[in-house]
Specification:
heterodimer, A: about 450 residues, alpha/beta, GMP Synthetase, Chain A, domain 3, 2 domains, four-stranded antiparallel beta sheet, 14 helices, disordered C terminus, B: about 60 residues, mainly alpha, 2 helices
Chain lengths: ~450, ~60
């Protein structure tokens, strides 16, 4: 294949990997039930006796799936409880922008040793290594992202260039100064950098000849957009998918890349599951496993996480199994369509942050003078992601400084500072939420430049 | 040497490495040595060897 990361697992028969993973899942369930407070509580509440489980089929039938709401219900009010467990070396929180609370993931030394392995597969498959510089742009705080990126680079022998605190112009400059071979960004941020580079008359294919790989994560993207990015940057697009729950990357594109083919025949590439590290189920709404070409919810079980494993965790992400019978790379790992993982709930990725409209509802509608609002996420003329709020007030003369107060409140809630415009009473006459079916906020519209050709 | 026998030999060497690292950690925890930083580093090495053995895969 070339550009492999670990031939043993990449070429192991799929049935052998599956057997290995299924056996380990049973061990993990038993150990979690004995040692992890959440699972002791959760399995007791579901009357699960892990000693009865003999096969994966038993587990699939009897082990309940876990949701964010379950974890938050257990963690409620005891954020620090996990830290008092013996052997804890780090704690990683989810972003906290859901309005539901933050999941708490204590990590021990085994977790830290495993933190960079999945990411290293992604980088090595993307052709990075041997001291190549990689510009990192994804923001982080008490989430897993910071330690994860550093560990992944270290494991892949890639030198991180930490561009988190740089503005877009500074990041373009860093690509040049450090002669970066790789760039890690969300599709939206890549779009922003592209608009800025075009505005500056930069021609990356010739001005940044060292750049050969762009690793996308966090959002879906269109085929035509991706093709345009490859042409402009003179670099191959790759993708990695992972989360705090998965202890890093669980799916990554192989050396073939995120797009395959040329010209008008370009199609989406393949994400491969690191099946020896994360057990992946794709469940249709009826609970059955999705077949080739079908979409379903991504449900994961971590096979390497130690202090806080995730067992049949429902990610809330919708993914499509690869419709093709094989990938040109020849690897035996499970296959999924690149570029089209999307949320099942209302979550929107904005500037790399997870934003749930419900959290913005709480921040904006907290003011008694506000009666309703509408939000638009869009890409401005400079390629920057913006959130514009039109806020309707009860009085024709709203309180002074209301725009500023709302900006601050939204920033505190979800980490994004919106543009705010106050509009007079009676502006909005349409219903803010759908009257039937699954809840979907109608206050929000998303019109981004990078996601134009999503498959249904 | 074909890749299977090379891998078998590597797994054997890593097993010896794991045994040695565990032995070192036990020795370092002797309180007369009084070097928690050494004990902690050995704990980290042992965790990394566990991860290494997982990536190597079963024999």
């Amino acid at each position: 294949m070339g550009r492999g990361a670990n031939q043993f697992w990449e070429q192991a028969p799929a049935t052998a990997i599956r057997t290995f993973a299924e056996r380990r899942i049973l061990d993990i369930i038993t150990r979690a039930h004995q040692e992890v407070p959440f699972y002791r509580w959760f399995y007791a509440a579901h009357s699960l006796n892990p000693a009865r489980l003999r096969t994966w089929a038993d587990a699939q039938r009897e082990v309940p799936s876990v949701t964010k709401a379950d974890l938050v219900a257990f963690d409620g009010g005891q954020l620090l409880a996990g830290l008092s467990l013996p052997g804890i070396r780090q704690v990683h929180l989810t972003s906290g922008t859901s309005g539901m609370g933050r999941e708490v993931y204590p990590r021990d030394s085994h977790d830290l040793a495993a933190l960079g392995t999945g990411g290293a597969y992604s980088y090595l498959w993307a052709g990075l290594g041997g001291g190549d510089r990689l510009l990192l742009t994804i923001p982080y705080s008490q989430t897993m992202a910071g330690p994860y990126f550093q560990a992944s680079c270290e494991t892949a022998h890639v030198v991180p260039v930490n561009g988190f605190a740089l503005d877009s112009a500074g990041r373009l400059e860093a690509l040049r100064v450090y002669r970066c071979a790789g760039l890690s960004a969300t599709p939206s941020h890549l779009h922003r950098l592209t608009a800025m580079a075009r505005g500056m008359g930069l021609h990356p294919a010739t001005d940044l000849p060292w750049l050969r790989t762009i690793v996308l994560s966090g959002e879906p993207y269109g085929i035509a957009w991706g093709h345009d990015m490859q042409e402009f940057w003179g670099a191959q697009l790759h993708e990695g998918w992972g989360a705090t729950q998965t202890l890093g990357v669980a799916l990554a594109t192989c050396p073939v890349g995120a797009l395959v083919g040329a010209g008008k025949s370009v199609t989406r590439g393949t994400l491969h599951g690191l099946d020896h590290r994360t057990f992946i189920e794709v469940l249709r709404p009826d609970g059955a496993e999705a077949g080739p070409g079908e979409r379903g919810e991504l449900v994961i079980t971590t096979l390497r996480a130690s202090a806080m494993p995730c067992i049949r965790f429902r990610m809330g992400d919708d993914i499509r199994r690869d419709p093709r019978s094989r990938c040109a790379c020849g690897m035996t790992f499970s296959r999924y369509e690149a570029g089209s993982i999307r949320r099942l709930d209302n979550m929107i990725k904005i500037r790399g942050m997870n934003v749930w409209p419900e959290a913005v509802d709480d921040a904006v509608l907290e003011s008694a003078t506000v009666t309703d609002y509408r939000a638009a996420v869009y890409t401005d003329g400079e390629g920057r992601e913006q959130v514009a709020l039109k806020v309707e007030t009860a009085a024709h003369q709203p309180p002074p400084q209301l725009e500023l107060a709302l900006q601050r409140r939204v920033k505190a809630a979800v980490g994004i500072t919106p543009l705010v415009q106050i509009v007079p009473p009676g502006t909005f006459t349409d219903a803010a939420v759908a009257a039937d079916g699954p809840f979907k906020a109608r206050r929000w519209t998303v019109n981004r430049a990078v996601t134009g050709d999503q498959p249904s | 040497m074909n890749s299977d026998s090379a891998r078998t030999r590597l797994i054997g060497e890593v097993s010896r490495l794991a045994w040695s690292a565990q032995r070192c950690q036990a020795l370092a925890s002797d309180e007369t040595i009084d070097a928690p930083i050494v004990t902690n580093m050995l704990a980290r090495i042992n965790a990394q060897i566990d991860e290494l053995r997982d990536e190597l895969g079963p024999q």
